[in-house]
Design goal:
Elements lengths: L12 H8 L6 E8 L4 E10 L2 E12 L2 E8 L4 E8 L5 E9 L6 E7 L3 E8 L5 E9 L3 E10 L4 E13 L2 E8 L4 E9 L7 E9 L4 E11 L4 E8 L3 E11 L2 E10 L8 E8 L2
Parallel strand pairs: 1-19
Antiparallel strand pairs: 1-2, 2-3, 3-4, 4-5, 5-6, 6-7, 7-8, 8-9, 9-10, 10-11, 11-12, 12-13, 13-14, 14-15, 15-16, 16-17, 17-18, 18-19
């Protein structure tokens, strides 16, 4: 793949990951194993509000082919086939779910030195079609995406975004929800390894005149431990502690408080991921 501007979905992703990734409110246990043949198995159990669910996932990689299969407690089977470089500079992703056949989708990603193009088509009689285009370089990118419903002949979405990425920072602006929201974010890395970072995000919804301002960040206490925190202007405070117990095995503890209503019960989550 060429080193170009990245996908449209990459715009603003660094800020979103810092503010949302790994924050949980459930109890989760994930155990993985792998073999030298390229087969990896993962078993996950989740306890959410007293209701236990789980799934088993298998992943097999051979040369430029990656197969993911997941079976959940409701006997739904999700399969994803990823093929790289069938045509030079492309990635093809086919996803199917049984017994819900109408949820299938085929996505083709094309990467160029100064552009990326993504087309996704649902596998049903009257498919929905998604298209995104990003132009630029790894430093500066400008992109747009749209969704079209062939049954109604209507646009289901249209968004646009711009991103500026430097070694020590990343800034982005996204106009989304058919022009109803605008989101601006900025990430500043505090060390060369980018394990400690500060982030700020502002979202404006025009239809309701509502603004949401969120600040947060991550701090690497040591080589094995990371602290994360986020706080928005509505008083929602989230904290997270992530510690690598042994190589590749991570314990995550997170919580969320409403600082404007401390009498409410805070939400806590614990996740343990064990890998060989």
């Amino acid at each position: 793949m060429s080193t170009g501007p990245g996908l449209f979905s990459d715009i603003g992703k660094k800020a979103k990951d810092l503010l949302t990734k790994d924050y949980i409110s459930d109890q989760k246990l994930s155990i993985s194993s792998s073999s030298f043949t390229g087969l990896a198995l993962t078993s996950t159990a989740v306890n959410k509000g007293g209701l236990s669910t789980g799934d088993v996932a298998a992943q097999y990689k051979y040369k430029n082919t990656l197969i993911d299969v997941k079976v959940d407690t409701e006997s739904s089977i999700s399969t994803t086939l990823t093929l790289t470089e069938i045509v030079p500079s492309t990635k093809t992703i086919v996803s199917l779910k049984f017994p819900n056949y109408n949820s299938g989708k085929v996505e083709v990603q094309y990467f160029h030195q100064h552009a990326t193009l993504t087309t996704a088509v649902a596998l049903k009689q009257s498919p929905a079609i998604d298209l995104s285009v990003t132009l630029g370089t790894p430093t500066f990118s400008l992109g747009a995406e749209a969704g079209y419903e062939t049954t109604s002949g209507a646009l289901t979405k249209y968004n646009a975004g711009i991103s500026v990425t430097k070694p020590e920072s990343c800034a982005s602006v996204i106009l989304g929800d058919k022009g109803d929201t605008i989101n601006a974010s900025y990430v500043h890395h505090l060390d060369q390894l980018k394990r400690s970072s500060a982030v700020a995000e502002i979202t404006r919804r025009f239809s309701t005149n509502e603004n949401t301002v969120t600040v947060g960040g991550a701090y690497a206490v040591d080589a094995l431990t990371v602290l994360k925190m986020r706080l928005n202007n509505h008083g929602r405070l989230g904290t997270l502690l992530q510690h690598e117990l042994i190589p590749k095995s991570v314990l995550t503890i997170s919580s969320e408080f409403d600082t404007k209503a401390l009498e409410k019960t805070p939400r806590f989550g614990v996740a343990l991921t064990l890998k060989p």
